[in-house]
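Try this one yourself first.
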């Protein structure tokens, strides 16, 4: 009986581990230092929204505590969120690209989606809000989603640029609708996806 048990256990263990030492269903990738940032953006909203003018961005800041990545099969990389602690990001100048910082993340797979988690974290970011937009602050937990189409394969030293136009436009719509509040902001960000790219 003991021999049978040992055989079954060994068989299952062999089935879970591939020949290169990565676990099936949750591959282990090497890590590389990647710079994450944003390109210049617009907060314009389509005419269909019947709002003739929108405020210029006077300040746009948010506190990043986590990032999650998905490969081209839709699977989460490294089991989900990465505690990158990028801290307070200031993208108030919409006309300029902005580096958010360098982070060690898994590399060597096809990146199709990056989700940025925004939280109130006074210790990390030194402010008492999760997001500040045109002098309005909120404390809600938020998530900004970015798609890479086509997917990109990251290597150490690469730079990823995220386009904030879709996110900024959604936040602007919320602002115009007096919905830039902890209770209402999620309905404006639901389904919103920005675009990501690899900087040449």
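Now uncover the answer:
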């Amino acid at each position: 009986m003991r021999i049978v048990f040992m055989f079954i256990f060994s068989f299952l263990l062999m089935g879970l581990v591939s020949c290169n030492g990565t676990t099936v269903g949750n591959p282990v990738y090497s890590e590389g230092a990647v710079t994450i940032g944003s390109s210049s953006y617009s907060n314009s909203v389509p005419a269909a929204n019947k709002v003739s003018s929108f405020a210029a961005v006077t300040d746009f800041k948010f506190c990043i505590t986590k990032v999650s990545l998905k490969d081209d099969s839709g699977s989460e990389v490294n089991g989900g969120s990465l505690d990158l602690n990028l801290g307070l990001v200031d993208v108030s100048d919409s006309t300029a690209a902005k580096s958010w910082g360098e982070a060690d993340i898994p590399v060597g797979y096809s990146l199709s989606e990056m989700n940025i988690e925004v939280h109130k974290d006074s210790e990390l970011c030194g402010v008492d809000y999760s997001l500040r937009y045109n002098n309005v602050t909120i404390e809600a937990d938020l998530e900004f989603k970015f798609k890479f189409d086509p997917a990109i394969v990251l290597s150490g030293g690469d730079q990823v640029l995220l386009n904030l136009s879709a996110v900024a436009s959604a936040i602007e719509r919320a602002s115009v609708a007096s919905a830039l509040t902890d209770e209402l902001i999620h309905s404006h960000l639901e389904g919103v996806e920005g675009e990501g790219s690899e900087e040449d």
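Discussion: The first strand starts at residue 31 and ends at 38. The chain has a mean pLDDT of 84.
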